[in-house]
Amino acid sequence: MPRVEEITLPRGKLLFQQGSTATSLYFVEAGRVAQVKEDSAARRIVHRHAGPGMYLGRYALVAGRPFRFSAVAEEETTLLAIPLRYLYPLLFTHDDWKSWFFRTDIAARLRAVPLFMDFDDWDIYPLADAVEVQQVEAGAIIFEAGDEADSFYIVDQGQVIETGPASLQPQAEWPQYFAAGNFFGRYNLMRGEQRRATAVARIPTRLFRISGQTVQELLSDRVKDLPKNLVHVDIVARLREVPLFSGLSDEHLRLLSGFAALEYHRPGDIVARQGEPATSLLILEQGEAIARLQTGKGNPRPVRYFKAYAPGAPPSATAGESNHFGDHGLLADEMRGATVEVTRPSVWIVLRRDDFERFLAEAGLRLDDLKPAFQPDAQANTPLRHHPTISLFRTRCTGIGSCRLHGLRRWAS
What we know:
The chain is α+β, with helices and mostly antiparallel strands. The protein has helices at 58-63, 84-91, 97-101, 104-110, 121-130, 186-191, 212-221, 235-240, 250-257, 353-363, and strands spanning 5-9, 14-16, 24-30, 33-38, 44-50, 55-56, 70-73, 77-83, 132-136, 141-143, 151-157, 160-163, 176-178, 183-184, 198-201, 205-211, 261-265, 270-272, 280-293, 301-307, 324-325, 334-336, 339-352, 379-380, 390-391, 393-395, 397-399, 402-403. Helix 4 packs across helix 5.
């Protein structure tokens, strides 16, 4: 690339000032740079430390806005200054440039947390930069009761169990289990208290750690539209609404919640596709979606709408509607009977069959121990009166003209 300049900054030297116009992207070759921001009280808050291999100024590049932070060398640092006018054409010739230029995988996981779901790219990507990724071995203690609460954690892969001391009430809430997409450790952080529980990785786990300082920065920047506290998705309550699990004890439901992941999806994302294997249960927690059925060469027709509602208050329980589908796919080989497309930014609770089987083994349960009168509620009883009831899954035929119906309504096609 033409006109790339290598520059060296002594310790304490300013690279660029918050609010100034961006003309270059910076790549750190050696040393370290702190991205800092002044709050309303003129205090300097460190947002991120950038070391070798990291970029500075990406968001000003993409959004065409002034720098959101100042950048100061924390030690003698060597950087490449890449003029934006030469960088734009190179980036936009690669369709996947965002995935490596920004931490889009981390950003997608962050959006499953209610606090961050409504962040736009301008907000979520800098937050993803501030995330510290930690790999934790099975049995490792993440924090113990009595430790200083200086951060909270999001599970990206694996599972964490949190146990409270005997003096902590109510004991009925413990232990708590956290799977991919869920977060823990925020309670004492938000209150400036010591840890009240101990968190341990049950299996090898990948965590995203967000410092308390970053959280405070977010709250101060968006005080009007951010909640003061982080609220958990009540996965136990959602699972309890699924007829298959209605006979489980609270203890078993808490354990099962540790196998259910939270996933964020944008409008247009397909969360289930007609004709593909149905190997997971999906429960809509936030947002909206639509199920469409393809029955010939014409356009797919809508057969059901999904819209999030408060736990325990389904919109039309008497009509058999629910905000979940795929529960029967946990029990037998099935195919998706319709395509489900997200229409508004959405968070889904996802329980995969292999994780469900792990739960059964760990809980010492058999399928016969689940509710005997189970009737899958994945029936698409649609508010569209002119459409027939369509199952959101289709049985897999074992021979010509022979299908296992498992109590389902016969496939309408």
